[in-house]
Specification:
450 residues; 6-stranded mixed beta sheet; Alpha-Beta Plaits; binds zinc ion; alpha+beta; Aminopeptidase; 2 domains
Length: 450
């Protein structure tokens, strides 16, 4: 090692923490996408981008704002090298112990929405870049820290950015796990819609705001008073729920949509109750085809493929209004060849329940050779700084920014075995790890640009 990156990171830590706190205070949750507006993803996302580019300006970096879709902070010369992060965050739903949009330090942890996903890693990468520049390192590549404002929904930010800007030939995205992720599952999202049996007791059904989160709350209004039955049901199954102002609520546990097995979907509990009163096609479909089945076994779409693991299925959004229903599902598959199987099998299940199947967002798998120079260099940086030689580069179900560039992998920040509560209440970043992140990213960039 030519430099002691850990010692250097210590010097930049206080400033990095200050900037991260300021960024967390920008409430960069998408409200409604307005392509005609100067701030297409809303004021919060625009403020986060202004704040980040403000840091770059303050520190003398060249930067650009791509019409509030994304921003770029640049240093060096030669072939483009990308660091892909994002400034938008998922909504702060559920029970937080602190204000999600105020960085709160308790012990070794900093709590706040976006602290780990993805504002913390963006700031760590930024300070890594700044450190190398301040050291006078000669860059043989142009490092572009590209920050998007719409990663959590449809990544329209980078789609927009790459329409006008060339794709860098190599890069990493600090938006997942260490050591690094060289393979990501394909997306095969779909919706189920149609008419609910008119004799159903359901008046309205509402749950979930993002397809990639396991919904922890389900709110339903019913045609009639079933409060006695509901309370008995909750008690006999030890489920969590309540009735407030004639709205029936069930509660589960939120988790990321790529790992539905870690959450409890509140809709499955509600469907069980509603169906126990009247067997309508909507709740019958949920129970027969979706309920407590994170791998798609009930619809026989479950597949498993070597180092890429199992298909995952998260029904993230549920709605019923005026007897019309909608269920939106996040589905990730280890093989792109399964699209056809999903189309045929899920359509069949939907039709059997007098419902309609619709294919949604699709994206091929992303895979970088684990023996490539990029993967080996990043892994070396991780090993040297963390001292962890046990955990190896891997594949996951989560889709990250890495897939925007062919030769790009996801690199940090969550350590093996750590749970930062991303997309859940009380998201945090461990401050000792945050400091290490700056050192790991500095080492990694140095290895690739020296
Ligand atoms: Zn993220």
């Amino acid at each position: 090692m030519d430099y002691n990156f850990l010692e250097l990171a210590d010097k930049y830590y206080d400033d990095a923490l200050k900037d991260l706190s300021e960024l967390i205070e920008c409430k960069s949750v998408l409200d409604v996408y307005k392509p005609t507006s100067a701030h297409p993803f809303g004021e919060g996302c625009a403020k986060a981008l202004d704040t980040m580019l403000g840091f770059a300006k303050r520190d003398g970096f060249e930067s650009l704002n791509d019409e509030y879709y994304a921003g770029e902070i640049k240093y060096g010369s030669g072939e483009d090298f990308a660091i892909l992060g994002h400034l938008d965050v998922v909504p702060a739903e559920g029970a937080w112990d602190t204000d999600p949009f105020k960085a709160t330090i308790i012990g070794d942890r900093l709590y706040g929405r976006g602290s780990t996903d993805d504002k913390g890693p963006v700031i760590a990468s930024y300070y890594a870049l700044k450190m190398l520049r301040d050291l006078g390192v000669k860059f043989n590549k142009t490092v572009k820290l590209i920050v998007g404002c719409d990663e959590e929904t449809e990544s329209r930010c980078l789609t927009h950015y790459f329409k006008k800007h060339n794709k860098p030939s190599i890069g990493f995205s600090p938006d997942a796990d260490f050591p690094l992720i060289y393979g990501e599952k394909a997306f095969a999202n779909f919706s189920i819609l149609g008419s609910v049996d008119p004799h159903s007791i359901i008046k309205t059904w509402k749950s979930g705001s993002r397809v990639n989160i396991v919904p922890d709350t389900c709110a339903v209004t019913l045609k009639g008073d079933y409060s006695k039955e509901f309370n008995e049901f909750l008690e006999s199954h030890s489920y969590q729920g309540e009735i407030k102002d004639s709205v029936y609520y069930t509660y589960g546990k939120a988790a990321h949509g790529s790992t539905p097995e870690l959450g409890v979907n509140a809709n499955f509990i509600m469907a069980e109750f509603v169906n126990s009163i009247y067997n309508d096609n909507f709740t019958r479909f949920i129970l027969d085809c979706l309920s407590f089945d994170p791998y798609g076994e009930k619809m026989e779409i479950n597949v498993e493929n070597g180092d890429m693991g199992k298909l995952s299925l998260n029904p993230g959004i549920f709605e019923v209004e005026n007897n019309e229903c909608l269920i939106q599902c996040d589905c990730r598959t280890p093989k792109d060849s399964q699209y056809k199987v999903i189309d045929v099998f899920v359509r069949d299940c939907a039709n059997k329940h007098k419902l309609i199947y619709k294919a949604d967002h699709r994206k091929e798998i992303h895979y970088v050779d684990p023996n490539s120079y990029l993967v080996q260099s990043l892994y070396k940086a991780y090993k040297e700084i963390s001292g962890d030689t046990i955990n190896k580069p891997m594949t996951i179900g989560g889709g990250t920014y890495a897939k925007f560039i062919d030769n790009c992998v996801a690199f940090g920040p969550t350590l093996p075995g750590e749970d930062n509560l991303i997309h859940s209440p009380n998201e945090y970043i461990d401050l000792n790890n945050f400091k290490k992140d700056i050192a790991i990213y500095a080492y990694a960039i140095y290895e690739l640009v020296k």
